[in-house]
Amino acid sequence: MLTNMPQEDRVHIADIDFGSFYVDAFGGSLEASVQFYQAVKASDNNDAKIILHQTVRMVWLADQIDNVAAARPAFQVLFYLTAAELVAKIVSGYEGEGESKKHVKKFFSEICESSQKERLEKAFQRVGGAFLPLEGAVDFLYSIRCDVVHRGLYYAFSLPTTARDIPLLTGPGEDAVIAEITIAEIRRIVLEGAVLAAKRIAGIL
User: Fold this and answer.
1) What is the pLDDT of residue 166?
2) Of 65, 68, 87, which is closest to residue 189 (Cα–Cα)?
3) Rounded CA gap, 81 and 77, in Å?
4) C-beta separation of 106 from 88 below 8 A
5) Phi and psi, residue 59, nearest 5°
């Protein structure tokens, strides 16, 4: 058993409310989120629907992490970058294997808008130096993803809890940087990127 929560109180992945899940990507507007989801659902573009559904599933799983591993954002980064990768591969029509890092970079550099890119460019700062550029920030997040996947190293990465928290030194060893972004902000960027991707391929303005 992973938790002592009564069975009847647990939320199952099959019960996700897709229409409301993207509310953070619409500035907190439930109405806009639901309208957008219904528009994609009514379209003939199956890839757009897959993007929305699979992104929600990955992000929803990330949302559950604190129930079993509180304050371990490396796990959440793993799910967020998995969502970013799958979105970019669908948009690119890629059906091969591998090229994970390439498509994660495509998501943030080619699918996300300038506001999301600018936030990531102010997310991580070298100790005593400049902020990492967009590619450097994505590389850093991808390195955290790889530490979890390949080494089971999930405890060396931390993020401020809120935007008002003091920036944190984070990351393994010599690769440590100062983090000035919250996990909630990264979550929102991924959701916003998925919305942009679905709009693009479904032809929704």
Assistant:
1) 85
2) 87
3) 6
4) yes
5) -70, -40
The residue assigned the tokens 């393994």 is: 172
How many domains is the chain partitioned into structurally? 1
Helix %, strand %, coil % for the chain, to 5? 65, 5, 35
Asked whether residue 2 is assigned to any structural domain, the reply reads no
Range of the domain at 166: 17-202
Name the nearest CA neighbour of 63 among 91, 34, 90, 83: 83
Q: Strand locations in 96-164, DSSP E?
A: 124-125
* DSSP codes of every residue in 78-103: HHHHHHHHHHHHHHHT--SS--HHHH
Tokens 């989801």 belong to which residue? 37
The pLDDT, as a whole number, for residue 10 is 62
Do the domain assignments include residue 7? Answer: no
Chain-wide mean pLDDT for the chain? 91
Q: Rounded to two decimals, what is the model's pTM?
A: 0.91
